[in-house]
Structures are given as structure tokens and as C-alpha cells.
Amino acid sequence: DAGVIQSPRHEVTEMGQEVTLRCKPISGHDYLFWYRQTMMRGLELLIYFNNNVPIDDSGMPEDRFSAKMPNASFSTLKIQPSEPRDSAVYFCASSFSAYEQYFGPGTRLTVT
Amino acid sequence: GEDVEQSLFLSVREGDSSVINCTYTDSSSTYLYWYKQEPGAGLQLLTYIFSNMDMKQDQRLTVLLNKKDKHLSLRIADTQTGDSAIYFCAERLRRTDKLIFGTGTRLQVFP
User: Fold this and answer.
1) Is the separation of the CB atoms in B72 and B23 below 8 Å?
2) In terms of DSSP bridges, do strands A19-24 and B105-110 run parallel, antiparallel, or are they unpaired?
3) Of B31, B44, B101, which is closest to A43 when you measure between CB atoms?
4) E strands, A14-101, in order
């Protein structure tokens, strides 16, 4: 298996623009997690899905952030409108039964 | 509350053993994990231990769990320069599927 795939790897955008981050989990995994990593706040869980259903979105910063999982092999995290404070590395992770989470390589987002 | 703490830095000489420590606060943790993050990469799962175990060994890695003191440690034997990275411990709580991550310990290995 190729592991968790994220795209793009790097994204630079201007304040106010919409940003969409994509994730393909490992085949057969039933959990998908979105994290954000910054120097100041460390690794934060934003939202996670089980069998494509959002279970806990309490970590989503505000209404500008939304996440979807239309099927078992694809998820998106959207920021609209983006702000400079959203600059971070965003990770997607997947697992089977939530025991071992496998992380993707991350998307480094820079909002200018 | 849920809190996982780690020291920020550790520096060791190549060939020595490294011990990275972690403390957690929630006694309902079921599994405890160690992840490694190299520059520009995602987190790589190294090993994990079930909360009813005291020790787990996997090649150069030894995990020790003191549940009474809520203390977890990762020992890396014969540390190599390729072990230089940030190491995160994490706990999985009984009542949730979420992992609570520590702040990470940056391990620097010098020749």
C-alpha cells in the first residue's frame, strides 16, 4: 500500500482565498483524522470520521473550516476564507479501529 | 483533565542509549504510543503499549510504562544519527477514539 496520500504537499495562497486540502486514506481503514501542527500549539486534532461519518469536530477552529468524507477513499478539508493565522502543516491520518494511526506526509499551507 | 507532557530537548552521543520520558494525567488511557517525526515528514508510528503491560521491547526500542506514576519512557539503544528527530508520545483514552499527543521531544545525536 502507498500509505496515506495528501495533496498538495505545499500550498501558498493569499488571504481571503479558498483552500482545499485532500487526503486518500489507506485502503481498508475505517477512521480518518485531520490534524494541524504549528510551533505554538503543537499537534491539534481538528476532526475525525468513522466509516465516513464525522464523529468529533470539536477541534475545528471556526466556521471557516469544514471537512467532508464523501466515500471511504477520499476526504477534504476546506478553509474559506483563509487567513494568515491558518498557516500550518495539516496532516491526515487513517487507522483501522482507531488503534494505530498512520499519518500522511502533510500539506504545508502558507497564507500571505 | 487530559494532558501529556514531555521535555523539549535531548542530546546524546552516537552509540549511547537515549531515554525519552513522558507523563500523562488520564488514568483511563488504554494504549500509549510513540511516534517519530523527521524534518518535513509526517509522524511515523514506532511502537505502542497496552496499558496493562509494563514493558515492550522491539529491536533497539524499549518502552517502559509505570501506570501508578503515569509515566512512559522510550529507550533507544545504540543511538544513531538517523535517530535524530522529534519524538511524540500519545495516549488513547478509554472513552474516545482520539489520541492526545505530547509536545514532542527533539532528539539530537552527535558523533
Assistant:
1) yes
2) unpaired
3) B101
4) 19-24, 31-38, 42-50, 53-56, 65-71, 74-79, 88-95
Please spell the DSSP secondary structure of B16-54, one letter per residue: S-EEEEEEE--TTEEEEEEEEE-TTS-EEEEEEEETT-S
The widest CA-to-CA distance across chain B, in whole angstroms, is 44
Confidence of residue A81 (pLDDT cuts 50, 70, 90): very high
Instruction: Look up residue B77 and give its DSSP letter.
Output: S
Q: What is the greatest pairwise CA distance in chain A? A: 38
The yes-or-no verdict on residue B64 having pLDDT over 70 is yes
- pLDDT, residue B1, reads 53
Which residues does chain A have within 8 Å of residue B33's beta carbon, measured at their own beta carbons? 100
Contact A106 B101 (CB under 8 A): no
The residue written with cell numbers 485531520 in the block is A34
Q: How far is Cα A58 from Cα B89, in angstroms, rounded to an integer?
A: 22
Residues of chain A positioned with their CB less than 8 A from the CB of B35: 103
